Amino acid sequence: MASARDSLKPLFGDGVYPEDTIFTKLDLVSQFDSEAGMKPIKNLEYPLNVGTDEINHFVVFNVFSDAEARMMSEEEQQLQNAQSSVNNYTTAGGVVTTGTVMATRVVPKHMQNMALEFLVAVKQKSLPLRFHTLVSLHLGHG
Amino acid sequence: MVGQGVNSSDEALQAAHKMQEDMVKFDEDAQFGGELDMEQGRFTRFGKAMIRNQDTIALYMPQKIQSLGVLEYEQQDLSVARNVVSDKAGFVKKLGITKVFQAVDTLAGIIGANTNIASAITASMRIAENPRKQLNFREPVSRKFELNFNLSPRNEMESVRAYQIIQTFKKHAYPKLNKTWGKGTFYNFPAEFQIEYYTMQNGEPVQNDWLNKIGRCALREVNVDYAAGGAFSTFENGAPTHMNLSLTFEEMRLIDSELVEEQGY
Question: A119 and A131 in contact (C-beta within 8 Å)?
């Protein structure tokens, strides 16, 4: 008889869904590398023999949350730093924009460059893609 | 794909540009749910949590599995519109018999006299206004799902697992303090839950399509009774022997007829 962990494997762990099975929409999760820099897998079943012949009907709760949810604490810190930097530039941009038309071109460009530098850093460090989304959103591209 | 190293900074920059473009495109696709749903007038929610957490929980089927669909209707007084369209004579008489005297009553009320002439007239004629009420549909109500689980661990491992499950549900039900936009000035939204029923068939978990599907849900209530056996009892290590975990979920968007017919909600 297969163990609970064996039989539930397709539902658990890094077996990510390519799409939202309910609304059949693409989910960002499928874009992520499940190996690099993720929190340890936390699959919980109760009782321990759920998913075996003994308890063959069960209900599964998948949890969806924000980007931080899957990050290691170190990644979360990096993300916060990056977000703070972008926020500071956004504030600076707002102040300067009121001064000159030139500033409205320079500051967003600077922000763009900064974001790209961050993206490159993320890319080179093989960090998950979600950073890009958040930075893009802060820049108003989302 | 994420996770691949890039050698030169130029290549990395190009890759970053492309990735950013792809992400913007992907975001648009994800946010608006594709052409089909747009045609049907069904859009993906604003701010839908898109990242699947590593936490996944499987629990035995609870004793009670209910799917309650509530639709909200409202009784509305359509007498004026109905009389104007279909019973103009009645409309005029109504004005003469009741409304004129109601106006007199109102004026008398200003000087403190409680005349009630309109009521006296209708009472003496032994007639009452027909409000011509009609039950009008307002909206479907978001569905709620209340799931109760009795947790009676048989060994220490199951005690630990029960504890972890309770803590995980609670952790995801509550919001996180946002540390990006101030120091806790805002909350980050709590997690969302996707609930699916499964049945083992030939050793493989298969989604049970005989039961209704459940859309993305918020966890509205997490209640734990640590003395579910009637009295508080524990194992030697202090872990409770009987617990009851009560979860109340609410669907985050409203169901329409097509979702029921085509997708089994």
Answer: yes
The answer, for A77 touching chain B at a CB cutoff of 8 Å, is no
Give the ipTM.
0.76
Find the distance separating the first CA and the last CA of chain B, reported in whole Å: 35
What CA–CA distance (Å, rounded) separates B155 from B166?
17
Residue of A25, A71, A122, A120 lying closest to B27 (CA atoms): A25
Of all helices (H) and strands (E), which one includes residue B140? strand B133-140
Q: B165 and A31 in contact by Cβ < 8 A?
A: no
Gap between the Cα atoms of B182 and B184, Å rounded: 6
Cβ B184 vs Cβ B178: under 8 Å: yes
CB-based contacts of A34: which residues, under 8 Å, 6+ apart? Answer: A14, A16
Q: What is the pTM of this model?
A: 0.64
Alpha helices in B98-246 (DSSP H): 100-110, 117-125, 156-173
**DSSP of chain A, one letter per residue?**
---HHHHTGGGSTT---SEETTTTEE-GGGGS-SSTTBPPPEEEEESTTBTSSSB-EEEEEEEEE-GGGGB-HHHHHHHHHHHHHHHHHHHHHHHHHHH-HHHHHHHHHHHHHHHHHHHHHHHHTT--THHHHHHHHHTT--
Give every CB contact of residue B237 below 8 A, 6+ residues apart in sequence.
Answer: B156, B159
3-state class of B103 per DSSP?
helix
Q: What is the pLDDT along chain B (265 residues), one digit of tens a residue?
A: 333 333 444 555 555 455 445 444 434 334 333 444 666 677 667 777 766 666 789 999 998 888 889 999 999 999 888 888 888 888 888 888 888 888 888 988 998 888 888 888 889 999 988 888 999 999 999 999 999 999 999 988 899 899 999 999 999 999 988 877 888 899 988 989 999 999 988 888 889 999 999 989 999 999 999 999 899 999 988 999 999 999 999 999 898 898 888 888 8
Cβ proximity of A16 and A29 under 8 Å: yes
Interchain contact, A128 vs B2, CB within 8 Å: yes
Q: Residue A116 and residue B23: Cβ atoms within 8 Å? A: no
* CB of A134 less than 8 A from some CB of B: no
User: Distance from B106 to chain A by nearest Cα, in Å?
Assistant: 56
